[in-house]
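Cross-posting from the modeling subforum.

Setting up a comparison between two proteins and wanted a second pair of eyes on the formatting. Protein 1 (sequence, then structure tokens):
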Amino acid sequence: MKEEVGKRLSRDDRREQIIQAALGVFIEKGFASTTTSEIAKAADISEVTLFRNFSSKKEIFYAGIEPILLKAMDKDITPGNENFDSKQIEQIIFNRIKFLEDNRGIVKLILNENMLNQKDENYIHKMVFSLKELLEKNKVVCDEFTIRLLMGSFLSFLYQPESKEELVKEYAKRLSELMLKK
């Protein structure tokens, strides 16, 4: 657990080191079962260094998951596009499914923690709101049914992954066509 002698990380780099180590431990053990000592050990730092950078385990948790879940949709936003079509919706759906595939462990962790700890941040609601906001910024009208349909579809890929990209693209195409039917 000794920090590398002579190599001093910037504050941002040190925080990122801690966050990445913590996410690995959280995914493996869950938030409640993880200790700050285990996070420090995984980050190969002292617990004192951990607390110089974060005030609590919860702060580390939020610092790790917020950018992954809430800022990941930014690349899909194309504000001001007057001719938003099924191809663009299809791409958003495909990107969300691929995002879940790339971040499966984190998303499952958030879903599990959300069920256990309803009194804190509700990231499920934030994810739904972000998706709705993304679609509305792209001039897609989203009612409750559409959002539930999309979220259910995304979660189905989380728990029943599809390795063939062409099948995911076909699914995204059919779902986008369904969304645009009047």
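Protein 2 (same layout):
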Amino acid sequence: MSSPNETQNLRDLARLRRVRDRIDREYARPLDVEALARGAHMSAGHLSREFRRVYGESPYSYLMTRRIERAKALLRRGDLSVTEVCFAVGCSSLGTFSTRFSELVGMSPSAYRAQFTDDRATDAPGEIPSCLSKQVTRPVRNREARAATPPLA
């Protein structure tokens, strides 16, 4: 028999999983922590604390990571402008989108797009499989990238 605390923790984990799944599905729609919390029957503060504890980042950071991940794929296609990509992934401000993109990717959206447009012009080899592309192109926050490099001494 499980204790009431264990039962509550399992319920909270299930709610957090549903929140994460909702972000994955609806990243292009207007989402904020309050709306996500209402859908999970939690307060915004509790949702933020528990989401960070379980997944290692805030719901907003997770949402922006999903949006930037999708934006990278759209920019690699090369048929949409940066502004069109910004709105297609659910961002309402081009400035905020560009700032977040640069934070996560390490270059501006237009520089990222130009990099892939230039590669196509030089007859780059064919596409890599999507299972590898998702792993390789997942945005990584700059502080995580710095932590991943081993010390020299």
